[in-house]
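Exercise 7.
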Amino acid sequence: MNEMAKLQVLLGHWIEHNQEHGEEFVRWAQRARAAGLEEVARPIAEAARSAGEATRCLRQALARLETGGGSDVSK
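Solution. The predicted structure, written as tokens, is:
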């Protein structure tokens, strides 16, 4: 398996894994809020937003790799 094929597999894995973490963060932020822990919930919710942004970036990288838009990766 060449480096680009490995990267494609890794990106798919990272996207899925990161999405799962983001969903878990949302659930725990909700639980913290329900327990009256707003000061705890707020940064957990921010982590969920950050995970969503990371997933967006990873999807963009994967799309560019799949469409050949990542040709400068080999430099």
